[in-house]
Amino acid sequence: MSQFKSDLLRLLDSRGYIHQLTDAEGLDALAAKQIVPAYIGFDATAPSLHVGSLVQIMMLRRLQQAGHKPVVLMGGGTTRIGDPTGRDESRKMLSDETIEANIASIRTVFDRFLKFGDGPTDAVMVNNHDWLGKLGYIEMLQKVGTHFTINRMLSFDSVRLRLEREQPMTFLEFNYMILQGYDFRHLAQEMGVRLQMGGSDQWGNIVNGIELSRRMDGLEVYGLTTPLLTTADGGKMGKTAKGAVWLNGDQLPAYDYWQFWRNTQDADVGRFLRLFTDIDLTEIERLEQLQGSEINDAKKILADAATTMAHGADAALAAAETARKTFEEGSGGDALPSISVSDSSIALVDAMVDLGLVASKKEARRMIAGGGARIDGEAVADENALISKGSTTVRISAGKKKHGLIEFC
């Protein structure tokens, strides 16, 4: 049984979101007696967030489910600087137009996970460029800079690791933690935000904001971080041979998203069901006890639930049906990745790369040599094989789980 009294912390604890809390008792008491507005920040460096951000999105969803108010902070201002956390080099500078377009695209993801509106627990999205863009630099240094010491800032992992690796950090990036701390203080003053949440790598930045609010305003605010999320084999969550697992459908088809969850390792099924679905905990306990081939049923349930949340029920149903046809009936499906070829033939290694079934031609040749490549279900041993226009559509397979379609036109 959870040691927490509030619905919020009990929910987060039971589903595995809590790693660190700055003042567990204080936050628990506050959440038990009032609606707590809480925020997580997201920079707008791409048109879509990816699965690596999904724990944070789900935490905002849990916050709303527990009767509190999610505040989605888009870093329209901080994106112009770049968060140095976990990076060995500076991010490329983006234009104002690109940042705004990215924010608009990312908003469509949040619309699926949260209920936005004007109610007391409805989610809101704010852009820190609205206040950071108005700060005079001298004013910022005078009012805020005095509360940060260089000694302390140099001790943070985001700075220390970069310096230890002899990778340069610009003075612009060095200011990021100050601006993030100011964000927390601004949201606390203007919107009554009392809690910042984030990944474990954000702990130092969150503590900065808490200390800044206390020193400048005497206000008690709180911080909560999630555990570093890795897969059972120690890999980084959301990384595949094809690249990032994007949340927007125009960046990654719903079928590929469904297949990502279907390919979850056995040991991760229960944890991922708790973190990434709304399935009842009792049912999750049953599903994670399945053994042998039966665990695949739990993986399909995970894939259906996660894809429904991100892409809608129709997309999840179509993806599941495509997978069933592909793996159980051996036929193709509309949601498989596909390429159009206008020539009369295409090299098998090129087709495998273009479809995203492998990362390189070298990997394709290795797959063919190992007997893992198939054309319309037939194994191919010749790495120089050509796929000719014998029919309109040809199905290519790389191993047992990756399939794609070539459409000759």
UniProtKB/TrEMBL annotation:
GO molecular function: tyrosine-tRNA ligase activity
SUPFAM superfamilies found in the cross-reference section: Alpha-L RNA-binding motif, Nucleotidylyl transferase
Annotated catalysed reactions: tRNA(Tyr) + L-tyrosine + ATP = L-tyrosyl-tRNA(Tyr) + AMP + diphosphate + H(+)
Domain of life: Bacteria
Residues holding ATP: K239
Xref: Gene3D superfamilies: HUPs, RNA-binding S4 domain, Tyrosyl-Transfer RNA Synthetase
Residues annotated to bind L-tyrosine: Y39, Y176, Q180
Keyword presence, Aminoacyl-tRNA synthetase: yes
Motif ('HIGH' region): 44-53
Signal sequence residues: none
Subunit structure of this chain's protein: Homodimer.
Purpose: Catalyzes the attachment of tyrosine to tRNA(Tyr) in a two-step reaction: tyrosine is first activated by ATP to form Tyr-AMP and then transferred to the acceptor end of tRNA(Tyr).
Family per record: Belongs to the class-I aminoacyl-tRNA synthetase family. TyrS type 1 subfamily.
The protein's name in its UniProt record: Tyrosine--tRNA ligase
Organism: Sphingorhabdus buctiana
Originating gene: tyrS
